[in-house]
Design brief:
heterodimer; A: mainly alpha; Ferritin; 10 helices; about 0% strand; B: Ubiquitin-like (UB roll); three-stranded antiparallel sheet; 2 helices; flat
């Protein structure tokens, strides 16, 4: 893996966490219950914390003086490398939980591998810490999938709709990509197929308990890893980046 | 925030801040069952490293003394100073008593 590929790969890890963290934080003050409001905000803060550590590491690797803030606030949507899944609007609470559940299961497997690999020891250390957080996120979202799926007729119908709606965006998690291939060749990541198999196994187990059906459709929407995003990302970035771009050298 | 949470039962939360100390009441919250109550307690009451263990119990399971009985329950202890262990000096090593 060249330095440029390594940098790009780190961005994809950081951007998944940053964009989902920013999205989730929109729930602050709006969740169905105070307790859930704080739970979602905690998850959002964990994700943003993970992205900060990875962006700082990426900036140092790049060696052009870009710190976490420079990378987070001064890249445009075309320069973001996150999955489309994490930039989608929150929708209703079930939509948010279903997206979180799918992502948490993916992040748990990915951080599990990152914690073990020896290609990038800084990422291994970040992943070890993040894994504890993500395991809690995964328990939280899986618990809600079961409550909503195995709940009332209304909650079951709505959460199944959420699962079906999000499904086309899941394939991107396991999609081959030149940068990812370079990471796989370097031993930094296992191959996509093995991640996908593990993911399907754990997701199926939870969905079975939730009495929900895992879609089998294979069509997938991709583009995020190449900077080709949905229209939703620009609005999210506009809100997130407005203040630092207005006052680029402000300190607070 | 809607009134959804008010349909969930109320739970009292007890957190043990360190090994060796007892669980202390820290507040209450709404949850639909014990599992959710522990998860919520973790998110609401232990965000700043407040604890190493959580207990929750349904608020309705608590029997409380009546405020009207305050006189007969507690006033008689007022003039029994000999019950207080204030005549001993505690060794420095004893931190929690």
């Amino acid at each position: 893996m060249t330095k440029a590929q390594h940098f790009e790969w780190l961005l994809s890890l950081a951007d998944d966490a940053l964009i989902l963290g920013q999205r989730l934080s929109e729930w602050c003050g709006h969740a169905p219950a105070l307790e859930e409001d704080i739970a979602l905000s905690n998850v959002a803060l964990d994700l943003i914390g993970q992205s900060r550590a990875i962006l700082t590491h990426a900036g140092l690797l790049e060696g052009e003086g870009r710190d976490e803030d420079r990378l987070a606030f001064f890249r445009s949507d075309r320069e973001y490398r996150n999955l489309l899944l994490v930039e989608l609007p929150n929708g209703h609470f079930g939509d948010t939980i279903a997206r979180q559940f799918f992502f948490d299961q993916f992040a748990m497997i990915r951080y599990g591998h990152l914690a073990q690999q020896t290609f990038d020891l800084e990422i291994a250390a970040i992943a070890t810490k993040a894994l504890k957080e993500v395991r809690y996120h995964a328990a939280h979202s899986a618990d809600w999938m079961i409550r909503l799926g195995d709940g009332t007729n209304v909650s079951k119908t709505r959460i199944q709709e959420s699962v079906d709606r999000l499904w086309p965006y899941i394939g991107e998690c396991f999609e081959a990509h030149p940068i990812l291939d370079a990471a796989i060749t370097s031993g930094a990541m296992p191959d996509c197929k093995s991640i996908e198999l593990t993911w399907k196994e754990s997701v199926s187990a939870v969905l079975a308990e939730a009495t929900l059906i895992l879609p089998t459709d294979n069509w997938k929407q991709v583009g995020g890893r190449n900077g080709l995003h949905t229209e939703h990302l620009s609005y999210l970035l506009a809100e997130m980046q407005a203040v630092p771009r207005l006052h680029p050298d402000a300190k607070w | 925030m809607s009134s959804e949470s008010s349909k969930w039962p109320l739970w009292e939360v007890f957190v043990r801040s360190r090994q060796g100390l007892s669980h202390k009441h820290v507040g209450s919250l709404h949850a639909s069952d014990a599992t959710m109550a522990i998860a919520n307690a973790r998110d609401v009451y232990t965000r700043r490293q407040e604890g190493v263990s959580i207990w929750v119990l349904p608020a309705e399971a608590i029997s409380a003394s009546s405020p009207a009985d305050k006189d007969i329950l507690f006033d008689p202890a007022n003039d029994k100073v000999y019950r207080h262990p204030t005549f001993y000096t505690l060794p420095d090593e004893v931190k929690n008593m």
